[in-house]
Every structure is written in structure tokens, then in C-alpha cells.
Amino acid sequence: MGLDVAIPDTALCDCSDLREKTIRIGRMGRAFAIFRVECVFVYVTGMLPTNQEHDSALLLKILQFMDTPQYLRRRVFPHSPALKFAGLLPPLRTRSHPLSTDYSDLSIGDVRWGAQAKPGKIDLGLKELVDYPHRLQGKRPALFQIAETTSRLRLEAVEREDIEEYYGFEAEKVGSLVTLLEDSAGVTRIALSRHAPPYSKLEGAIKSTVAGTKSLLAVFGGPRRGVSELLSKEKGSLKELIDFWVNTVPQQGTETVRLEEAILTSLTLLNNTVGNLVAKPGYHQ
Question: Fewest beta carbons within 10 Å, which of 1, 10, 73, 241?
């Protein structure tokens, strides 16, 4: 069960500078969190110009930065020119970004991100570090569930997929969209395209298919080239690997629809149709 999204490494190709790129990623990140996306895949197209070859790394870094709670960001992300405009990023305010720093507000079963502060101590964003006898691997944060609050705070490591409620998204790079689609057998795979039939004509079929798979991968093209154009040499494979080609903005009133606008519009429609079939519970159920 899950809702995943694939975006190309060319997602920022029409942005003029780092500030504009950061703002776009922030808008996409908010959409991913609002509609309970579990994983964002950035797929390689081979069409990035030399002066933009680091865009895919920037995409991943800022999306991962957004998903990391504020109290761990300085510990997990050292100073970097890529994060120069991080202050412009909107807060996600998912359950994984709690505001409380008091022990007294914690209950058994609560989950928080934590990072190794020093041997035997974990930073959970509380006023004091918490004892934890095991050493974490690497600098990336880990998820901890509160197992005891009486005599002391006892933690148990958990995985994101084991949490019943929505707890933010992961972001990772994949070498090929075709490989990702092949590896997603058993998942309903939808490609968004302005050349496809309108969503209203396919809504029933999409809902019926997703009801069987309980999972969905939404594939987006880039600002200047759609999915089929980005993978023009692999169109035959795409036809076999995509279950639905859909236009979520038929008869658009503007000449172009920006990628972040397409993501927001498409995920809105999918959420209304199949959100409860594929995504974990969010707020205000």
C-alpha cells in the first residue's frame, strides 16, 4: 500500500537560479506531504545540460531537508551552498515535525525522529538528550517509538513503513524510469500528459484498478518535455509499462502548466478518487 511519485531530473530546467529552484522544490514538497506521498523518485533522463547536471542532487537534498524535522536539520545537514535559500522553504507540519520539546508531552507509542548526538545519546528534539544503548549508522536520522515513560524514557527503533499514520516522504534517485516501472509490477502506474484523455473519462477505471493493487505510482514529465518526449527512445516500453495516460488539466487556460501546478492538480484529483485506497491516514480523518 502506498502512493509514490516519479519526477525527472529536469524538473528544475526552466528555473533561472538557486532561489527559484528552492522555491519550486518547496512547493512540490508541500504538495507531496499534503497528499501523503510515501516516496519521491527522481529519475535520470540524460537530458540535463552540463550547467545543470547537479540539479538532481539539489532536488534530493532539499526534499530530504524538508522532510527532516527542524530540530535535527543543523545536526544532519552541515552548512552547504545548496541550502542558501532554505529559509524560503515552507514548513511541512506533518506528524513527523512535532513542536513540543517537553518530556511530559510524550506518551507510549509516540514516534519521533532522532539522530545520534554522541555515544549512548539521541537527540529527539527534547530539552535533554535521551539514552539509547545502540549506535546509529551514518548521519541520517532514525525513527524511534516511545516504549516507556515512567522511570525513564525508553526508545525502540522503528521503520517508517511500520507506522500506521502518514509520517512524511522519502526521496531517492533512480537511474531509469523504465527500470522503476518494471520494478513496480503490481502497482498501478499512471503517467500525466496533456496529450492524454481527460481524467474524468478514466476516473472509474483508475479507481477500479487501484482498488486491486492498493498502490499507485504517478509519473510526471518535465517543464519542457513530457514523459513520452523525455523517453522518446523507449516509447515502446512505456506503452507496456504505463497502465493509464491521463490529462488532469484538460482545456487549460494558460499556454503552459508548471510542474508544481501539475503535481498539485493531479494529486488533488487522485486523492479525491483513490486517496483512501493507497495512502496512510492523515490529519482530520
Answer: 1
* Superfamily covering domain 103-162: Nucleic acid-binding proteins (2.40.50.140)
Residue 194 · residue 226 · CB < 8 Å: yes
**Band of the pLDDT at 84, cuts 50, 70, 90?**
very high
Annotate 37-94 with DSSP letters as a single string.
--EEEEE--S---GGGTTHHHHHHHHHHHHHS-HHHHHHHS---GGGTTGGGSPP---
What local confidence, expressed as pLDDT, does residue 265 receive? 97
Strands 121-123 and 130-131 turn out to be antiparallel
Tens of pLDDT, residue by residue over 18-57, are 999 999 999 999 999 999 999 999 999 988 888 888 999 9
Phi, psi of 257 (to 5 degrees): -120, 120
Name residue, grid cell 528544475: 12
Structure pTM?
Answer: 0.94
For the chain, the domains span 2-91+166-278, 103-162
92, 137 Cβ separation under 8 angstroms: no
Average per-residue pLDDT in the chain?
Answer: 93
- Cβ-contact 160, 210 below 8 angstroms: no
Do 197 and 245 meet the contact criterion of CB atoms below 8 Å apart?
Answer: yes
2 burial via Cβ count (<10 Å: 0-12, 13-18, 19+): middle
> May I ask the CATH class of domain 2-91+166-278?
alpha beta
The predicted structure's pLDDT at residue 245: 96
For residue 90, what pLDDT is reported? 97
Contact 14, 223 (CB under 8 A): yes
